[in-house]
Amino acid sequence: MIAIHTLFFTIVNRGKANAILRKAKECGAKGGTILLGEGTVTSKLLDAVGVTETHKEILMISASDELDAKLHETISETFNFSKRNRGIAFSVPFMNWTLDAAETKDISLNNDNFSYCCIFTIVDKGKSQDCMNAARAAGARGGTLIHGRGAGVPTDFYYPLLIEPQKETVLIISPKDQAPSIREKIYSDLELNKLGQGIIFTLPVGRTSGLFEERSEEHKGGGAQ
What we know:
The protein is an alpha+beta fold. The chain folds into 2 domains: 1-114 and 206-225, Alpha-Beta Plaits (2-Layer Sandwich); 117-205, Alpha-Beta Plaits. The chain is built from 6 helices and 9 strands, in the order E-H-E-H-E-H-E-E-H-E-E-H-E-E-H. The protein has a 9-stranded antiparallel beta sheet with strand order 8-5-7-6-2-3-1-4-9, with helices on one face. Helix 1 crosses helix 3 (65-78) and helix 4 (128-137) packs across helix 5.
């Protein structure tokens, strides 16, 4: 049985997640969940010809700290995450509850061990572009859109119909120092303070692979191309 310390996420082009899951199982993962989504495109050329989204798959795997480190190393190397548009991976830690407070891991956003954050925004269908416009205005480079359905509407509302509003979840990975301004811009522009407009929350990110900022630093230091 694998102790669950983190959730390992990887975001890749559509059709690649199954191959990554097979490699993850070779590393010791017991399984994973694949979600369909779209990545937002920032290329001026693609924007000019009307292409604003690219099909993506989001693979989520529960992992121990040891497995998480192995997944980052193996998957990043095998699938060339150091190259542009090959994919990214990141890990969101779980709280390690123990009776001994000294052994409990600090996974707060104030922990200096975390350099990145994952910002989740859940809004009604059709509002994801407004969310990304606000995020980019605050410095975000891009995000991933995941489709879903809402729950909680009373079953007797407009009886006998059961209404399940369609939702969109926008996932943005951001350096920790930029996350507050991105979050506040989304919160303000989408008026999330009003009932039913949506929700936003931020989680710390433990490990990352393939992020643009990491590749930029490698180029500056003469690292991998």
